[in-house]
From TrEMBL:
<keyword id="KW-0808">Transferase</keyword>
<protein>
    <recommendedName>
        <fullName>Sulfotransferase</fullName>
    </recommendedName>
</protein>
<dbReference type="InterPro" id="IPR026634">
    <property type="entry name" value="TPST-like"/>
</dbReference>
<dbReference type="InterPro" id="IPR027417">
    <property type="entry name" value="P-loop_NTPase"/>
</dbReference>
<dbReference type="GO" id="GO:0008476">
    <property type="term" value="F:protein-tyrosine sulfotransferase activity"/>
</dbReference>
<dbReference type="Pfam" id="PF13469">
    <property type="entry name" value="Sulfotransfer_3"/>
</dbReference>
Amino acid sequence: MDPHVFIVGCARSGTTLLQRLVDAHPDLSVTPSMHWVRDLFRERGFKRPEDPVPPTLVSALVAHPRFSRLGLDPGRVAALAGPETTHLDLLSGIFGLYGEASHKPLVGNKTAPFVRRIPELHALWPKARFVHIIRDGRDVCLSILDWESTPGAAGRYSSWGEDPISTTALWWRRKVLLGREGGAGIEPGLYRETFYESLVSDPAGECRRLCDFLGIPYEEAMLRFVERRSDPDLERAHPTMPVTAGLRDWRAQMPREAVERFEAVAGDLLEDLGYPLATSPGRATVERAARMREAFSTEAGSRGRKLPAGW
């Protein structure tokens, strides 16, 4: 079973909410984040989809602490590996087992960091659709400043200690631009942008439009996702709650000076996405933004991290 859809986006943008809505559809099951699978393969030198998968790699996969979140029988996953099984065969097999266990005809995946990998995933599964959820970067910034996983995200950049606002703006800008760039480069009709604000203000309407894109009938069960709590680990990190607007509001919760710094770095993208600006950054703030962007770009390049063409 090949993946029908990938849900991607910058962290803290609503990927988990969208996953829960889609996973509640009776025809489509969405796996939890699987970036750890990709990391495990790469750590052991398996980077190409055609690389053969030895039994030792599959053993490491089922022994991984995050494997249990998939809810799959380790024996059945181990049985996927044979003398000619490739990296791609194993991944498709895992998707198939997940869909089978969920008793649904279609399966998808939610892995937010895959927003940077749309062209790679499209090459592996040419018919898969991509839903890129985008949220106002200023609200994302508020969430990042209060997130326990920030040290492994925007907080990993050395500029964070000097200016977390500008660093988060750059981090958000890079993720969103890479997703849009990747989506523009694949076949028409396979990429869609969903805005978090539209999702929380009109969940039924947005779910209808999303189902049209996915080629499945709209089901009101999607809006009843709060009735389903099947992943204890996910519940601890993201407790299930009804669709709620206004959880973050940069207009009321973000100091004006912080808004100005964010907009100096990412104002052009905010405007392109339809988010009105609230400030007109002064010369000193613009110069600071340029310096922060140069430092961020240099560090990203030194770490081998791709920057979007429109950077």
